[in-house]
Design a protein that fits this description.
47% of the residues lie in helices and 17% in strands. By secondary structure, the chain is of the alpha/beta class. Among the domains are: 143-260 and 295-325, Rossmann fold (3-Layer(aba) Sandwich); 332-450, Orthogonal Bundle (Helix Hairpins), CATH 1.10.287.130; 453-613, Histidine kinase-like ATPase, C-terminal domain (Heat Shock Protein 90), CATH 3.30.565.10. The protein has a 5-stranded parallel sheet.
């Protein structure tokens, strides 16, 4: 047990012996920018890189705020007293005033203590006074790059106001800046604020002329002797200035300055901490050589670019933009993707449902069409059977009528009174019976799809024959007939009985359609139609056909007559189409009545078609 306690005490003693003491010496104070930001970065990197426990002590060189160096003596005595018993392992001086103080007082304070000069521009380090115990981690200002950046992003700039304090360090840089800005005197005019109090600077910056810019260098102590710590001075200037603010150091970036080529605080802090760890690890400070850091990649504040109308296209190549406001896609990428996927899924589902609905509708239509076709075929078969039965039953009495009328003609004596009239009547009876027999036979053949012999038919003669057949019917109904037949014969090849049936059906339909009108005019016209066709039209002055029924009137069992069966026009269409023709209906002239048309191929056209088939 005692051995364990002794081991623990030994470990604690060794650990305490390994603790490294580092003093950070500030130029103006812990809260003066830009040095305060560099000090924070160095402390952070030291904590990250150091393998030993660190004791970091902060001290501030208050004398840098004024021109008098006499107060340095008490400060030297103070430091000597503080570190007399417990010496420090490393001194890190922040800023030019701290570096100058250490170089002046090194022999009095810490003649052999390793030291790092950092957060200082290389021109502010006295190279001739460096010792083997000194390492430098400096930066190199390139002030012309600041003006070039301003003129690139804001090419209309005419005036640049330079904000600079009035401490000894700031007066040194005033002359350096004037010298490096001199080549731009012919392009812009410069306003120098070093001889003004900060309150006067604020008033002047609020009333700068158009096309102005502000270059913020330093404001540690103004011309009135007022020290400015922290961010307050820059924030107050930003609040009232009517021109964009630019700077040379990244410690001023992030809210008030537009941006451009600047020193990187994090990079310099990393380099200084690396040098410190090497020295604390035993490497001689004079052997640690780190080149001066130059301006880093230009960075810009997107918010201030929007405020001052700076286009991304005017930024230097390779610039990085910070604080960019994310667009809707960047903010809600997952939500938008989910919504889009949902919409695509819904669209696909809707499309599939529409496809299924249409497919089902087509299937239902096909089913209804099939049922209708089956019903039609059933009706046609029934009609065929009925026609055969009717033809069989009707042909016998018709044949008897014809035979008896013929016998009566033979037996009629010559000297009988009114013999000629009786002979005419009997002749008509014979003709009517023969025609009736032909019609019954034709209808039967049509339903049985018999191939009847086709012969040349003169359409004009066929029309006149039909008009003679309906002479008594049209006279009884007071129908006036108006014909306009072609002068030349219009021959087609077809079944005479069936074509006569078509014309007869159309004429009888026209007569029936005019029963309810006072003026009854039947118009029949024949003429040559298109190439190789004959056109026939049968018109009436009746009530006409509703436009919604112009196609349906040719369907089987569809009728507009109270006592109609809906077969006549369907039979007409079957006959015409069986003769390679077509039939249709149009409204009559001035909307009165209807006109039925049909076209048939001419005789020559049928002959040529037959030759081609042969």
């Amino acid at each position: 047990m005692i051995f364990c306690l002794l081991a623990m005490l030994a470990c604690q003693t060794a650990l305490a012996a390994e603790t490294k003491r580092v003093m950070i010496l500030h130029s103006f104070g812990r809260d003066f920018r830009p040095w305060s930001e560099y000090a924070k970065a160095i402390r952070t990197e030291l904590d990250r890189q150091s393998p030993w426990p660190l004791e970091i002590i902060d001290q501030s060189l208050m004398t840098a705020r004024g021109p008098d160096e006499d107060p340095e003596v008490p400060f030297v005595e103070y430091l000597r007293a503080v570190f007399a018993k417990r010496p420090i392992d490393l001194i890190v001086s922040i800023g030019a005033p701290a570096a100058a103080f250490v170089q002046r007082r090194r022999q009095q304070l810490f003649p052999t203590t390793p030291m790092i000069f950092t957060a200082v521009e290389e021109r502010r380090v006295q190279q001739s006074r460096l010792t083997e115990f000194d390492a430098v981690v400096t930066v190199a200002h390139t002030f012309p790059a600041i003006v070039e950046n301003i003129l690139q992003v804001l090419p209309d700039t005419k005036t640049i106001a330079v904000v600079n304090g009035n401490s000894s360090n700031e007066r040194f840089w005033l002359e350096e800046i004037r010298r490096e800005f001199a080549p731009f005197a012919d392009r812009v005019s410069f306003i120098w604020y070093n001889d003004k109090s900060f309150e006067d600077i604020l008033k002047h910056a609020a009333a700068l002329p158009p096309h102005s810019a502000i270059f913020w260098h330093l404001m540690s102590v103004d011309a009135a002797g007022v020290a400015h710590e922290g961010d307050a001075a820059l924030q107050r200037l930003y609040a009232v200035a009517n021109a964009p603010i630019f700077s040379y150091d990244g410690s001023f970036f992030g809210g008030e300055t537009v941006g451009g080529p600047m020193h990187s605080v994090s990079n310099l802090g990393r380099l200084a901490a690396t040098a410190a760890v090497r020295i604390l690890g035993g490497e001689k400070a004079g052997d640690v050589k780190i080149p001066a850091s130059k301006f880093a990649t230009p960075i810009f504040d997107w918010r201030l670019m929007q405020r001052w109308g700076i286009s991304e296209g005017r930024l230097p190549p390779g610039s990085q933009i910070y604080f960019r406001k994310p667009n809707v896609w960047e903010q809600y990428q997952l939500q938008i993707a989910a919504i889009f996927a949902t919409l695509v899924l819904q669209a696909a589902l809707i499309g599939w449902l529409i496809y299924e609905h249409r497919r089902r509708s087509r299937a239902e239509m096909l089913a209804r069409a099939s049922m209708s076709e089956l019903a039609h075929m059933n009706r046609v078969a029934t009609a065929g059977e009925l026609s055969a039965s009717i033809a069989h039953e009707v042909n016998q009495p018709i044949t008897g009528i014809v035979l008896k009328a013929s016998a009566a003609l033979r037996l009629l004596p010559e000297g009988l009174p009114n013999a000629q009239k009786i002979r005419d009547i009997l002749t008509d009876i014979v003709s009517a019976g023969q025609r009736a027999g032909e019609i019954v036979t034709g209808v039967r053949a049509m339903f049985k799809k018999d191939t009847n012999e086709r012969v040349p038919v003169d359409i004009n003669k066929l029309i006149l024959r039909v008009l003679e057949i309906v002479r008594i019917e049209r006279t009884r109904n007071g129908v006036e007939v108006q014909t306009d037949l072609a002068d030349d014969p219009l021959d087609v090849v077809g079944d005479t009985v069936q074509l006569q049936q078509v014309v007869l059906n159309l004429v009888m339909n026209a007569i029936e359609a005019m029963q309810s009108v006072p003026s009854r005019l039947l118009r029949i016209q024949s003429r040559k139609g298109g190439p190789g066709t004959v056109h026939v039209s049968v018109g009436d002055s009746g009530t006409g056909i509703d436009s919604s029924n112009t196609e349906r009137v040719f369907e089987h069992l569809f009728t507009t007559k109270p006592q109609g069966m809906g077969m006549g026009l369907a039979i007409c269409r079957s006959i015409i189409e069986n003769h390679d023709g077509r039939i249709w209906v149009t409204p009559g002239p001035a909307g009165a009545g209807s006109v039925f048309h049909f076209e048939l191929p001419t005789k020559a056209d049928k002959a040529s078609a037959g030759a081609l088939a042969a």
